[in-house]
Amino acid sequence: MSKYLVIVESPTKAKTITKFLGKDYTVLASYGHVRDLPNNASEIPENVKKEKWARLGINIEKDFEALYIIPSSKKDRVKELKNSLKDADELLLATDEDREGESISWHLLEVLNPKIPVKRLVFHEITKEAIKHAIDNARSVDENLVRAQETRRLVDRLYGYSVSPLLWKKMAPRLSAGRVQSVATRLLVERERERIKFKQASYWDLKGLFKKLAGDALPFDGELTHVSGKRVATGKDFEQETGKLKAADEVVLLSGEKAQELLNKIGKETPVVTSVEEKPYTQKPSAPFTTSTLQQEANRKLSFAVKRTMSIAQQLYENGFITYMRTDSTTLSKEALDGSRKLIAAEFGQDYLSPEVRTYQTKVKNAQEAHEAIRPAGQDFVHPDTVKARLGPEAMRLYELIWKRTLASQMKDAHGTRISVKIELGEAQFRASGKTIAFPGFLRAYVEGSDDPEQQLADQEKVLPKLTEGEKLKVEKMDALEHFTLPPARYTEGSLIKELERRGIGRPSTWATIVDVVLNRAYAYKKGAALVPTFIAMAVTNLMEQYFTTIIDYEFTARLEDDLDSIAAGEAESLNYLKSFYFGNGHAGLKALIEKGEETIDPRIVCGVPIGKENGGKDNGGKDIEVRIGRYGPFVTDGENRASLPDGIAPDEMTLEKARDILVEAAKGPQTLGNDPETQKPVYVKNGRFGPYVQLGDMVEGEDKPKMASLLPGMTPDSVTFETALKILSFPKVLGKHPESGEDINASNGRYGPYIKCGTDTRSIPQDEMSLLTLTLEQALDLLSRPKTRRGASAVKAAPLRELGKHPVSELPLVIKSGRFGPYVTDGTINASLPRGVDIESLSMEEAVNLLEARAARILADGGVSKKRRGARGGNKSKNPKTTKKAKTAKPKNATSKKKTSKKVTQDTEETT
Question: What whole-number distance in Å separates Cα of residue 153 and Cα of residue 37?
Fold first, then answer.
């Protein structure tokens, strides 16, 4: 009987597929791509190291021929696959169904060079039926898909490796540029510019609580809409940039004084119902999930970062619970339709099942309709409780979202009645609105933005009492309320992906990584759920818009996706597109733009983000105040003075007044707490690169550096008194001698927190029991008498600095503790450090959850263990020193120089070193 070798990307996927195949099948994982363009100089083969194009990894003069190497971390994996191939009669490549999966399969063919028959298996879910169907309908590797993926990879490489070095030269080290990363950053920056220009306006209105004259009907709210027949101004009537009314003669603008006058004027009038209007409404269910809508809804409903959503979705897919999670199609297969309709009848009853099969039209341009929406795998959908038992509560919550949305898509419409009531009270007209749900339909299973459909149904209904035209009412309460216009909302992870999708930028496989790269490259940070661009992002975007107008254009970037689709369909040539992108074709190519940028970009101009002009600016004897991007980060300056920016200040918060205050405060210099009674030197509390610290004396050229000491864990600069500062500066100090050994017992504040040392014996000081500042010799002796624990164990046992409450998903208690690297939030399973400068008392539950999700995603990306633990297990490092040495000087035979495709890269940007 024939023996088959099946290769997939991940070990989890391999384990799941193995369950559906017989003993004649061996399923192994490639762990992603086995080849890639070189990431550093040590990976470049000796025979091409001296070539000018070697670092880029693309020989532009030879029709963009790509240099692919087998990374040292993949050599053992390739060897294992080759050994397994020797015993096989047929090779089955079962990587993911997208372009990237096709690319991985092609690379495996190039590296393994099999002499046996090869087949490509494609499936969108890991079930027994899907695997069997894929084997029965195997095909060969699609070269067009491979070329399309390679084109994306090479374009991203050319962009990143050309533009990033220019940013280093003209702006600051370690900056990066990416084809879609730069465009996504531009979206954030443009929204922040709108917020900077925004001028707030205020307006008033009245809100009344009305009640029927007779009966026990509940009172209901009514809002003021008109005064003397003229509409009352609301927020939409104001211009964002001026704060002025758009059409002042068409509306009534109420000030606080006018609102109070109106309130007094109508106080003695009797409200009368002037009209009651009832209209039936029908609400249809949303389409099944695509990658974009799943990311948006999980972000809004479960507070999952998009990277976390995709990590969990990957788990669900590889364990056979859902279909492939990278798709822009809303199509459901016949199997899915049969399964969902059967389950609807069983769970909700036949009355809730749509009489006809619902189909949905994908609105995304060039969507892959041959693919399927994200749904529970198979025909008999697994219950969410099963997922919880296998993968935990977070995976269950995401699966439940997919499960409910799929069912809802095949349920009946919801319908009911909307009621609008107009009430006159003297010259004022109020409106009250209500909504009743006659039949909930699909809402019984799924309500967007709600975890509990039953509760949301109650929330959606707003019942008004039975009212008739001409009926008199009474006023229970009437208030004058002030409102303020709001600036345009910043993007969240979900809304940014929605905007990228709307503009046709990126694809399902790239959106999560685009957002993640923008956050990790210091171009944005999260404030609650909002993405706030940094000043570095503002400056880089200014430069890109001025000198790389074409390639940062939204339509230009979106057209690449169309071109890739044409290459994938065999309708266009990869080489033609690469030449056009790099050399230009009716527009300036990347090469010409880089050359022009080298000549014309002035660092003195591009490194500045103008804030405003003081006293008319330089031309009028004043000062131009700006934020500049320096080698060590952004700072504010007026040309003469400079000051570091406070942590977490958003560009729209940096007003001229704020900048002036920062400069004035910096000019004062550090304020002394007092003079040390022994040396008479001043004692300061300062904020440094590694956190707050106290300092004794001033920095004087030619003399020794003044003594400095970090604050103890949990301390803040504002809480440090003069006496506390002196105590901190007194360490390290000798507490006394050990009565048995006679050795000194020293107390210190070290890298991992306060500790004591006696000879070579050390102990951490448990913060829940004692303090370094008041530690006695007796306490130190007690610590030394205790058994030694592993580093950090005392921190785990320490009393929490703050209890936040229960995690909204796992319901585990979240607490903030003090660790060796500073405060961190934990749910008892995952620990996430608090960013520098974050106030422990002001950290919100949402921010804590985001920190834990980001940390969990990083752990999952590392294979479920931290880097330190992975290293302890061996990880990607060879246990044989000779092997390691050999890997660094890999022979050219392990590299291939062909114009082919690349390793699996889910990000749409190019990282530079």
Answer: 9
